[in-house]
Amino acid sequence: MELNDIKKRYSYVGFVYFLLTVLTFILQRLAGLLASNQGWVMKDWTLYLVRMIPMWGIAFPICYLLLKRIPAERPWEENIGIGRVLLVYPKMLVFIIGGSLIGTVLSFIIGLLFNGEVKNATINLIQDQKILPSFVFAVIVAPVMEELCFRKVLIDRLSMYSKKYTIILSGVMFGLFHANLYQFFYACFLGIAFAYVYTKTGKIRYTMMLHAMVNCIHGIIPMFFMGDINLQEFQNLSNLDPNDPATVQRLMGVYTNPGFLMLMGWAFLIFAIMIVGIILFIIDFKKIHVDDTNSPLQKPYAVKTIYLNAGMILFIIGLLAESSYALIGQILSSGA
Predict the structure, then answer these.
(1) Would you state the pLDDT for residue 329?
(2) DSSP string spanning 194-239?
(3) Comparing C-alpha atoms, which of 29, 7, 327 is closest to residue 179?
């Protein structure tokens, strides 16, 4: 296939994912208006249903039907076993934490520059929701649907042109689809790791399993602790005199809170797993590769073929616009 034809294919895929973004944005807001008119409280099951049904129940099936026009080719299957799949988690943990730190720092800087506050929507969601609906949607629904959307459907239709660059594209699109700065970097790194696993094994259940594990460990487990922690108290204490006996007493009350102690234990365990993961990553680094020798899309033409086309540009601009919309809304509301 000629490079121009490959570029058109990437453009078509980009346009379909742009359509997924637009449909999701519109349908979620219509669902929100409907819920509001019916007097439903946007919390727990209702909140998740208003978000998930428009995205995965309506928008994604429509876009999948459009993508079926493109011939699909599954990666060669390799059964690597559950143990080796689970070992991927500690290896990518440093990228999860590093990506989260990058997003947090950049969000903080933007908040300072515009005299507002950029909040972590994920943390707020964890604090405000109940565990059962969060578990169902974060550990079951989201991993299954997101892996189908950004790994199986995408990679099956594009990896024949370049495995390496499709793996990167999968991560970038997955990061952008989260539509907020806090999550972009770690979601991008995770997307690349999941895409690599799927490309090497051809088994989407492996990436679904890893995705569910990450969401459970970093999203659901902290809910057991954070419900008993008053984050506002931390912020209030940071503005008080640390030498004041009353402040010290309040600090002791916070630091001896069982929820806080369990959260610190969880954080220590995550840190220990990350150290093990770094060692394993260094040991296995030379084994991390994909064979792109015979791929028609090689380095000199890859970027402009994949990204510099109408469909992908629309997708990127659309997600950046949605992210900016949410960011500006947060800054304006915090400064009000």
Answers:
(1) 76
(2) HHHHHHHH--HHHHHHHHHHHHIIIIIHHHHHHTT--HHHHHHHHT
(3) 327
